[in-house]
Amino acid sequence: MFGNSSINTPIGPISITCRSEKIWRLSLGNPPPDVGMTSAEHRIICIVKDQLKEYFSGIRKTFDIPLDWEQLHGFQRKVLEIVSGIPYGSVFTYGQIAAKLGSPKASRAVGAALAHNPLPILIPCHRVVSASGHLTGYLGQKGIEGKRQLLELEGQKIVGEKLG
């Protein structure tokens, strides 16, 4: 069973979907209406909402939320596992992620895997930039602007659409 709720944030509404007491999806943009959920799913979603509020207020630097990793497989899972370890306020390039995977020429494949990240912010794909420092591709209705806002919240200086 899935439980769904939403929260308004500085980068727009975020829909939170819980499955089996784990966060299954975070969707940036216009969320669907809240739907019925079990008390366990409600508890997990309340924890996510509280932690997102703390993150956007600058208090929280890491998340302590059970994520549904079972939905992720192969190359994408490997990419997202590496990205989940990027510390608050830090950035990696697509090439650095590819090198950590042992495939230094796979930066485009890394970008493709990140484009389908079902758990943005919680798995911080906004912390991945191009080798030149340009902010490239981001999920949600605000796109690059949302990525810029998240990186600035974490202390990065952005000039235009590039790390400053």
Polypeptide structure, described:
The chain is an alpha+beta fold. It has two domains: 2-56; 72-163, Arc Repressor Mutant, subunit A. It is 34% helix and 19% strand. It is built from five helices and seven strands. It has helices at residues 39-56, 74-84, 94-100, 107-115, 144-153, and strands spanning 2-9, 12-19, 22-28, 92-93, 128-129, 158-159, 162-163. Strands 1-2-3 form a three-stranded antiparallel sheet, covered by helices on one side. Helix 3 packs across helix 4. The longest helix has 18 residues, at 39-56. The radius of gyration is 16 Å and the shape is globular.
Rg on CA atoms, Å: 16 Å
Strand content: 15-25%
Strand order of the largest sheet: 1-2-3
CATH domain class name of the largest domain? Mainly Alpha
Number of domains: 2
What's the name of the CATH homologous superfamily of the largest domain? Winged helix-like DNA-binding domain superfamily/Winged helix DNA-binding domain
Mean pLDDT: 92
